[in-house]
Amino acid sequence: MHRIADRIEAEAVELAVLGVRDNGTEFNMALKAEPGSAAGTFRYYAEALDKVAGEVAPTQPDVLGLVHRTPVGVVGAIVPWNFPLMIGAWKLAPALAMGNSVVLKPAETASLTLLRLAQICVECGLPDGVFNVVTGSGAETGAALAMSMGVDVLTFTGSGGTGRKLLEASARSNLKRCYLELGGKSPNIVFGDAPDLQKAARVSAMGIFRNSGQVCVAGSRLLVEASVHDEFVALLKAEAEALRVGDPLDLGNQIGAVNSEEQLRRNLSFMDMARAEGGQVITGGARILAETGGSYMAPTIVTHVARDHALFQREVFGPVLSVTKFETEAEAVSLANATDFGLAAGVWTADLSRAHRMVAAIRAGVVHVNTYGGADNTVPLGGVGQSGNGHDKSLHALDKYVDLKTAWIQL
Ligand code: NAD
Q: Ligand 1: does its nearest atom lie under 6 Å from the Cβ of 388?
């Protein structure tokens, strides 16, 4: 696993370019998030695997009770297109570390880096058949993996609709455990006492617009205290309009392309819905750079979004930020928790007590305070509610890929 990490690092630029040509993520982000993060993930689990041991249970004295952790066997992994190498590594590395073999299905529009990873693994000495990449459509190849009697655990990142199908397939086949990491509609909450509104605007803009909003934890629902609403929205608008969008391989661009024409059409359909419901598009809202033949969308901010609007409730997975005003902390909590999702959140405040109260009150897998985004391998990533039931990363992810076996030995 260390050799695999070394090799990913050595090939980082090539892997990042390969991935960008597949999915359109801006190069700088791809370099850090894809090979950069994947190499770190292999290293983290390489270091972790010999720290995991079984247990001796405190049974009665004439019995020895041992709890073994055993590999589950075959892990099926299904991943999306937004960060294939990073998310693939989040599943592959802990599964391998616990002694399993893996069959991974990449998304239709982004498979090249994972195919290269499979070659790297073999070149680094992983036995044939331990890590397998099977390309194909979700409806056919993905469904076959989900229905397979030979797959013991399914680990998935993608949309809630597909997650539901995987649970059904599990019920109809061998009751394989399904770990689901699904979408989000994450609130980013700015209080009037935020320590630095300018910084909050800059970080919040990147928290929604990087990778054209195609980030599961994107802070896509801005909730702003009325006392700073107009000032903050103006700062944010300036940040959005200053972002350079274009060819993802041009290092001067901060935002790359939308993954596909289909995704772009979907993003734009939300603009029609938002306008019809009374939302005000204060910047963006349209396709740009059409003359290049690429799929680009301008960073978009929609104000006057109410809690029953589609833009408040549904994940766009595009560069679209909804803005809603609140008056009190209680109202902020109520708005934050008013969707079916529970993936991530942000809170901007100088009041430490309030920060802790918000962390406790918001239903989410991660709450960022005075920043948005940011994480490393030591902390888990996963959601609650309809954002999923499984965690990638950290030592907790190892538990997904083991079974517990008791040895009860009469002495
Ligand atoms: P998707 O569910 O359409 O596809 C994800 C994967 O599932 C792809 O490989 C696809 O081919 C496969 N698939 C589709 N239908 C299938 C079926 N019937 N059976 C088996 N496999 C099937 O999602 P997407 O559009 O590729 O990705 C975007 C979604 O992923 C967003 O909702 C986003 O929030 C979510 N996401 C979540 C996380 C997280 O960590 N929670 C991270 C990244 C993305």
A: yes
Tens-digit pLDDT profile for residues 274-294: 999 999 999 999 999 999 999
Evaluate whether the domain defined by 2-182+388-410 bears CATH number 3.40.605.10.
Answer: yes
What's residue 111's pLDDT?
Answer: 98
Average pLDDT of the chain is: 98
Q: Is the Cβ atom of 159 under 6 angstroms away from ligand 1?
A: yes
The pTM of the whole model exceeds 0.85: yes
The architecture in CATH of the region 187-369 reads 3-Layer(aba) Sandwich (3.40)
Stretch 345-369: mean pLDDT, rounded? 98
What is the DSSP secondary-structure string of 60-127?
Answer: -TTEEEEEEEEE-SEEEEE--SSSHHHHHHHHHHHHHHTT-EEEEE-BTTB-HHHHHHHHHHHHTTPP
Please report the atom of ligand 1 found closest to the CA of residue 184. Answer: 34
394 lines ligand 1 (CB under 6 A): no
* Domain extent listing, the chain: 2-182+388-410, 187-369
